[in-house]
């Protein structure tokens, strides 16, 4: 009888990892991180693309486009350009860049995932301002979370 109860208590837990969508979310977070580091955040004011170098002004422009879009359509188009459209559903996104001094620059920093699955990707970047006299640049870690 104890063995029978054990089987019913144990077997459903064996299949829990197969019911998760966190792999899909992790791949999405990695795709968004790659898109940000290699194209979107790698542009400076002159339009030159410098992969791996995050421009602080471009980051702030992206932040305003995500946190206060001019219309829902603009927001959806921006999310699609980042690779956030999964099977027609746009997920939540959080981007954090933390420099070597511990200063954090956040996009959607106040939103938390709650009890949902979260996909996360991290990348090392060099963060600088378009005007090196203001901000000569520092190594940083870009973290992308998707849920």
UniProtKB/TrEMBL annotation:
Pfam families: DUF7287
InterPro entries per UniProt: DUF7287
Protein name listed in UniProt: Uncharacterized protein
